């Protein structure tokens, strides 16, 4: 099957509908060339310091993790802490927020305290030559309860997976199993080992984004090229009630967090929730039901800087 290709001009509603129908959709103009260049300038020195493969001693308790991590793959985590381009631009991409607001909206209407989303993880995945295909999995498996229940749940997590360098069938483009987000039963990839199913490659040009559901089976492809490294960025956004993979607000120094917008801070756990319920903090991740960001001493910020600027 052809993966549907939409642009931000098609709007969040059409993009969400395509993801719901097919489990995936390509957003053709997710990030500009200038944004990629600035992000890359932050990433280069960090990637140059890394060796490929899982860091020594990390997660030795699962053999499958070696394959999931990739023997000739660099996974650069904690990007928000060291990348100004990420904090200024990537976490502010409007179409990402418009899609996330729709996907994670409570079924009980607007301004409900169980609405909301935040950053699950932000990592570079650079697959090197000779790296095997990653086991197929659903990203929502990191909260196994979600898989146990099956397809009829609201989304736990969605991935805005964008390309920094060309991602091709030959150099390891993500493999996706069309329709697998609607299968009646979701098995665990760790229990059953590598699952073999017919896949399609999510080929991307730099700046394009493959948006996929947390229910869709997928995995990094094998890199069959001689010397091409496939550099992509996994921007994973989860429902606010779920604990993210990376503990961003414990990793990023508070003076660095202070440079972000209120919304950017909330994405990393420095504010109580986003979107706010009636401009209030909501019921969890608070200090005495008030916004935790005030309590830890972040500077006051308008909730919506653009609105503050136009009414000033
Ligand atoms: O690298 C890829 O193409 C996909 C990686 C992935 O799905 C993951 O690490 O969860
Ligand atoms: Fe994944």
TrEMBL record:
The protein's superkingdom reads Eukaryota
Among its keywords, does the record have Transport? Answer: no
Record-stated family: Belongs to the PhyH family.
Q: Which organism is it from?
A: Clonostachys byssicola
Cite the entry's keywords alphabetically.
Dioxygenase, Iron, Metal-binding, Oxidoreductase
Instruction: Spell out the InterPro entries in the cross-references.
Output: Phytyl_CoA_dOase-like
**Stored Gene3D superfamilies:** q2cbj1_9rhob like domain (2.60.120.620)
Protein name, UniProt field? Phytanoyl-CoA dioxygenase
Read off the Pfam families from this record.
PhyH (PF05721)
Query: What cofactor does this chain's UniProt record say it requires?
Result: Fe cation
GO MF annotations, alphabetized: dioxygenase activity; metal ion binding
Iron as a keyword of this entry, yes or no, is yes
């Amino acid at each position: 099957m052809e993966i549907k290709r939409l642009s931000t001009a098609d709007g969040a509603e059409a993009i969400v509908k395509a993801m719901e129908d097919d489990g995936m959709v390509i957003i053709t103009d997710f990030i500009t060339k200038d944004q990629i260049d600035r992000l890359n300038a932050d990433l280069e020195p960090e990637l140059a310091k890394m060796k490929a493969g899982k860091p020594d001693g990390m997660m030795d308790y699962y053999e499958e993790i070696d394959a999931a991590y990739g023997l000739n793959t660099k996974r650069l985590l904690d990007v928000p802490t060291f990348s100004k381009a990420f904090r200024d631009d990537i976490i502010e991409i409007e179409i990402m927020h418009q899609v996330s607001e729709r996907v994670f909206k409570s079924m009980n209407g607007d301004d409900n305290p169980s609405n909301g989303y935040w950053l699950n993880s932000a990592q570079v995945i650079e697959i090197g030559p000779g790296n095997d295909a990653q086991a197929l999995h659903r990203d929502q498996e990191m909260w196994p309860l979600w898989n146990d229940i099956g397809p009829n749940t609201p989304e736990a997590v969605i991935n805005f997976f964008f390309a920094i360098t060309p991602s091709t069938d030959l150099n390891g483009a993500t493999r996706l199993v069309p329709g697998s987000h609607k299968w009646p039963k979701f098995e665990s990839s760790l229990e059953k080992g590598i699952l073999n199913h017919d896949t399609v490659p999510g080929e991307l040009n730099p700046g394009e984004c493959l948006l996929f559901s947390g229910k869709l089976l997928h995995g990094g492809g094998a890199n069959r090229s001689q010397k091409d490294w496939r550099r992509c960025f996994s921007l994973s956004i989860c429902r606010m009630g779920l604990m993210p993979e990376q503990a961003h607000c414990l990793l990023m120094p508070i003076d660095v967090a202070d440079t972000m917008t209120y919304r950017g801070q909330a994405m990393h756990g420095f504010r109580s929730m986003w979107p706010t319920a009636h401009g209030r903090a909501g019921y969890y991740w608070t200090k005495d039901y008030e916004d935790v960001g005030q309590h830890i001493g972040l500077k006051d910020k308008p909730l919506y800087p653009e609105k503050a600027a136009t009414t000033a």
